[in-house]
Each structure stands twice: as structure tokens, then as C-alpha cells.
Amino acid sequence: MAMPPKVVVVMPAYNAGRTLRMTYEELPKDAVSLVILVDDGSTDSTLEVARELGLEVFVHDRNYGYGANQKTCYTEALRAGCDVVVMVHPDYQYDPTLVPKIIEPITRGEADIVLGSRLKGGGSAIQNGMPWWKYLANRFLTGVENLAFGLGLSEFHTGYRAFSREVLETVNFRMNSDGFVFDQEIIAQAVAARFRVAEIAVPVRYFPEASSASFRASCDYGLKILWVVTRYLLHQSGVKRARRLSSIHRRYTRVAASSAHRLASQPGQALHA
Question: CATH number of the domain at 7-265, please?
Fold first, then answer.
């Protein structure tokens, strides 16, 4: 009987003390092997709540940024022996009960990455509280990324995502930005490494305690995404190769030894003409 995959939920946290408990309590514990929280220099009660909940906690010595937090999350998840990693924001914006659904395409061998899309299926992200300008920017940037990556996703800019272990071992995620654009850099790396990307529909909640970037920060983020796409296209065309988009795992394959060599290497076996 096959062993179930080890599913590790990672929570990149920054001042999530008011919503962390709600998020954790709704995680389906029967589907999750371990919950890792990485605190990025919070100044509220995040650490106290995480300890009360018995989470595996790692603390940055200062605030490094959202991308840096994810780097620590994935590094420690790999160290813990994960088979599948799910990023769940502890701000309660995404539905934690959907962890079994978001990992299903990976555990069934149908995908390597699964994104939880706020714009897929029924319902309106705007009606659920997404600012209209953020909705329009999301649609525009998603269209650009679909054209560049050769995909047909409804959204790339979600914080709810699942990765197979192989993806995190293959892509050079530690070379990525320490900021928000990390999310798109790791997708570009995965596409360049020919991993399969799928998506599921997820509801989203917008409320004062949920984290949300400002208009100015969102504009900066959008420009950085366009640069990620440009760098990816230059890399794929061979005009300017990018080290962060090149994976050492994709540079070679194992070649099986010939049958004659295998026989000769076995003790007590001899080859006859």
C-alpha cells in the first residue's frame, strides 16, 4: 500500500496575530502533515499565537520581505521532507479548507504546480471586495503572462499555491527577489523548466485585517512583472540567457548502462562469446 504524500503547509507571516488562529483552525488536519510558520519581523502577537498553536516556527532577525519569507518557507519545507508544499497566507484571505482540493492535481500526477485562482469560475472578485483597479491590472498582467508562457490561466497573482517537491528542488528560487515579485519569478522559472501548471477556483475575502498592497506598491509590482516576462522571453529566445531561469537538473539525463556491462558487474557472472 502506497504511503500518503507528506503535505507541508507553509505560512509566510508578517503581523498576522489577529487572523493566524482562524486560518490555522480551518486547516484540514487530516490532510496536512506539518505546518511551518516563518515570521518576517512581526511587531504584533504573531509569534505568541504561533507558539500557542504548536506550529513549527522560524523567525527572521528583521523584516526582509515577502519573497525572502517564501525562500525560508520552502527551504525548511524541503528540509522537513515534504512531498507537496502548500502556501497558505495566515491573514485569512484565502479559504484554508481547500488544501485537499489544491493538492489533488499534484497527488494524482496531473500537475506540478497548482494556483488557487480568485478569477476562475462563478462569483465576482470585485463583489468580494477586490478593488476595481486591482482587478483590471490583474486581468491585463495575466493576459500578458499567458501570451509569454504559452498558458491559459485565469490568474497568476494569487498567494494560494501548491508545489511538488520536484519543482522546489529544480528551480533556483533562492536567486529570486525578496519582494512581492517573487511570486511571478518562481512561476517563470517553473515554466522555463517545463513543469505543468494547473489552477482551481478559490473564493477570497477582503477585510481590514487581510493584507493588501497599496495602489503605488501595486504599480511598482506590475512594472516588475513586465520585466520578469521580458527577461523570460529573452532567455527562451536565446538572446540573453538568465542564470536564475536555468536549472542544473535540466542540463543532464541519466543514461542506463548496457546489458553487457550490467552482467559483467555482477559477482559470479561471466560473459561468454
Answer: 3.90.550.10
The whole-number pLDDT of residue 60 equals: 98
Task: Report CA-CA distances (Å) from 244 to 148, 154, 176, 187.
Answer: 17, 26, 7, 12
Phi/psi of residue 180, nearest 5 degrees = -65, -25
Whole-number mean pLDDT of the chain? Answer: 90
Rounded to 10°, the helix 132-149/215-237 angle is 0
Average pLDDT over residues 208-226: 77
Q: Which contacts (CB < 8 Å, 24+ apart) does range 119-126 have? A: 119/154, 119/155, 120/154, 120/155, 120/199, 120/200, 120/201, 121/201, 122/201, 123/201, 123/203, 125/204
Enclosing H/E stretch for 206: none
Where in the chain are the domains? 7-265
Integer Cα distance of 111 and 122 in angstroms: 23
